[in-house]
Amino acid sequence: MNFKSFQQRRDFLKTATSVALASGIPTLDILNNVALAAGGIEPSSVDSNYKAIVCVFLYGGQDNANILIPYRDGDGTGTTEYNRYRAGRAFTPASGTPDPQNQTTTSGDLSYSNAQLAATALNVTVGTTDPGINSVFTNHTYGRRFALHPSYTELAALYNSGKLAVVSNVGPLIAPISRQEWYQSTGVPRPLNLYSHDDQQKAWMSGTADKAAPERGIGGRIAAHPSIALLNSGAQVSTQISLDGSNTFMLADPAGPTTAIAYQVGSGSIGRLQTTTTTPPATPTVCNTSSTFITANPTSPYCVVGGPIRVSNGYTGNSTMYNAFRTRVSNVPENVSIYHDQWRATMDQSVKTESAIAAAFVNFPPSEDVVAPFVPIIGSGNTYNYLAAELRMVAALIRASVQLGVGNSALKRQIFFVGIGGFDTHGTEFWDNNPRINTQISKAINAFWTAMGNVQVTGSPGATAQSKVTLMTMTDFGRTHDSNGQGCDHGWGSHQIVLGGAVKGGAIYGMNHNIQAPAQAAGTVPSAGTSRYLGQDATTRADLSAGAVPRIGIPPDPYSGATTGGARCAGLNHALSRGELLATTSGDAVMATIAKWFGVPMPTTADVDALFPTLRAAHPNTNWTTADMGFMIPGA
What are the residue ranges of helices labelled H in 507-613? Predict the structure, then answer.
């Protein structure tokens, strides 16, 4: 098939690349699956102009109600909001005997005890006194205190140290929607196929919740932006690297910059170099991944086994296959067919990337600074921490970035994608999966953060790569607050974390439901601007708790016994009938804030729309050309 016109080729590539990414063509895992990185230990550093985004996707829909939990009321001692959380997560079967609050695989009670939250209790969030914080995305909780999941011990410490922030009630969003509009099927459009795993994963990753088949991902659009492409122009590797296979987040325009097309890398296994000197014949140097050998040889350099990177015989472990590919790539002219051109460009990029990363690992091998923090938490067999293994390779690649730019210069920008699954907890797996996986997440992210603290910044004494990296989470959707008798079901809004040296941490961000003041006392008629959707007085409908996000509990039924649908929905915008959060902040708003820190300018509304097509409609009261959510330090 020949294409004479550039537009014909461009249109075809848009379709062809989706197939290529889905089939894993950009990787060399199909060619070789062994990697060996060796060499002298070099100073560990990143460039002074380096920045990286790390997206951690939590597949299955993480249970948001146990991620951010009310711990103390605004008076500092009360547990009124905790009691609502507790009551909302309880379950009473047909027998009439409530399930015990014992966190077992046979219990339908989904709550933790208040005492269990003490170790992960968060410092009290201050008001919006920081002029750099956009008042639309308040972090004011009126003295209320929250706790993270009891398995998030390390993440709670990072929050309280001011490095980690929580973004509450966030999810795919096309336009603001009220509870009344939802139940009466009026008002603005909803994201397509809400409660669907596949569709909401794509909505999160693409920033286009109104498209069933997105053409681009958020990472792909950021990587292809002229400002980022210019910084990485001539780089030896792609701006985007996935440790978790092909994904929508990294979909890029195939006719755009080649550095924007994602490259996939395996997480690999860490070992130490072993050389046998007995002859004949001599045994070559190997990467020994035995824990016994690693422990017994602490001075031997670290090495990597697994993934598409290989250092052997000129960066190839199969010279016959390598030479055949190079001949095919080099000897057949361009424009023979669109299939050949696409294959040629993709495979050529993969081979060159393999060599570049391998060479960088020779000169800047994974060392104690980026490997040691992960050693105690990786585990093995059924306890193997996949996320930790992926973040360990991300740390190694960040450390090697000083030799992955033009020639052997430093790379300026990178975007990484990692993931972990197991959060689709409808049944009794709720009390196995959530504590276990959340423990892995907390320990893996903390180890990554420690590793980044061991990597220096060139020319900036005392500065570390922590100041150059921003990590954030995504998940399909939140889940119902109530129990289905065993676990919980699909929802919408969820709570996400953002971590980085440039993050204004120790705060909870998100949008109020039209609330500007604390709630009024019981027995008073609610006035404009006060909360009307939780713990309401039976007569006045006044909220008995403070009025700011995040909200906890289950609102009244959709119609509350009214004769006309939705009569009591007005103002009840916190959640739907089973406590699934009615999203108020779009995932695009989170990514737009990070993109600005990353160096993507958005001086006009056209620039905003090109990157985040539904952002302005989802948040019509924010001028995204001049403002963002405010959780990043400007210019950092």
Answer: 587-598, 605-611
